[in-house]
């Protein structure tokens, strides 16, 4: 049976998260990533795939990858390496800085590296703050023995913590359940009364 596309997306996402975590652990590894991305760009240019993209496209991808996973510094390093390497592969009609550096491409690559690196840095800051906030909430709830339940009226589901089930005298079960199932577990009703009960929250929201 062929693999489902969503399964591949999950694998790619897991690999990206693992790579981002590993690269972010040490400064040296981030800059090694810049060298690796540049090398891959050169190999891609020398491969049959080169016919599908403009020469600079491979180095743009290299800068994007280095800046996304490593930050602005590795992005700038990859931009510099790309601006030094690309003229050796594709001759240019304008003079090079010091006979080596392609200044227009260096500026373009650097702007991409700075923008993506800054955005990636801000995203990691937000994710770190969110994780710390969630951990503080988890510890506070665990220490106070407080139950939590949250209704999502868009998806019509309810998140129920294990402590909430315990406080309500309910057996263990999944954390996310359909809204009607949650109401039924709290207050069993006669089938004839359920339509009116289900309509009350909807009327309140509208």
What does this molecule look like?
The radius of gyration is 27 Å and the shape is elongated. Helices cover 69% and strands 5% of the residues. Strands 1-2-3 form a three-stranded antiparallel β-sheet. The protein contains eight helices and three strands; from the N terminus they run αααααββαβαα. It is mainly alpha-helical. A hairpin with a 4-residue loop joins β1 (149-152) and β2 (157-160).
Concise synopsis of the structure shown:
By secondary structure, this protein is mainly alpha-helical.
SSE order and pairing:
Blueprint: H1 5-25, H2 27-46, H3 55-70, H4 72-89, H5 103-144, E1 149-152, E2 157-160, H6 162-167, E3 176-178, H7 179-186, H8 194-205
Antiparallel strand pairs: 1-2, 2-3
Helix pairs in contact: 1-2, 2-3, 2-4, 3-4, 3-5, 4-5
Q: Could you tell me how far the N terminus lies from the C terminus, measured between alpha carbons in angstroms?
A: 46 Å
Q: Tell me the total number of β-strands.
A: 3
Query: What is the average per-residue confidence, as pLDDT, rounded to a whole number?
Result: 82
- In percent terms, what proportion of residues is strand? 5-15%
Uncertain spans: 1-7
The Cα radius of gyration reads 27 Å
Summing up helix and strand content along with how strands pair, one would put the structural category as: mainly alpha
3D shape: elongated
Helices, by number, come to: 8
* Share of helix, binned: 55-70%
Give the neighbour order of strands across the main sheet.
1-2-3
Let me know the largest β-sheet. Answer: 3 strands, antiparallel
Order of helices and strands: HHHHHEEHEHH
